[in-house]
From TrEMBL:
Catalytic activity: hydrogencarbonate + H(+) = CO2 + H2O
SMART domains on file: Pro_CA
Cofactor binding, per record: Binds 1 zinc ion per subunit.
Annotated keywords: Lyase, Metal-binding, Zinc
Function: Reversible hydration of carbon dioxide.
Annotated Zn(2+) binding sites: C38, D40, H90, C93
Listed name of the protein: Carbonic anhydrase
Amino acid sequence: MVTPIQENLVTKNKEYASSFTDGHLALPPAKKYAVVTCMDARIDPALAYGINLGDAHVIRNAGASAKDALRSLVISEQLLGTEEILLIKHTGCGMLTFKNEDAAGIVRKNLGEEAAAELGAFKGDFLPFPNLEGAVVEDVEFLKGSKLIPEKIKVSGWVYEVETGKVRGVI
């Protein structure tokens, strides 16, 4: 059974593909940078951050977590030549609203003990944070301190304001 979401995917993709002319773009990002940002549906990284197709790698996860994005960042810079990382968290992030125990409790309640046992796959750490700017600084310092991110890679941290659409530098 095709869902309305799947139907929308196919319909909108047909429209997109009918005028698509960028199949020639190279695999490595043309502007040699990667963006780590949140998966929040209120953020359109291409529009909000001025990213054209082929310019940059955009890595999205809950809370724009550097730890969660590390594997992709290593591939981006080691195999595909990126030279800069922009870490962009945002105001009103859901990761500010809970603690690990809260999320684990919800998983346990909704999915059962067997499912909760699988939380060990990521050590039960949902990577929440209580302070937005502090989390930006912590993630930038994590990347700068990682042996997997060479010193030559420029790393900066930002906050996107969902209320205004503006970005501001943190570190």
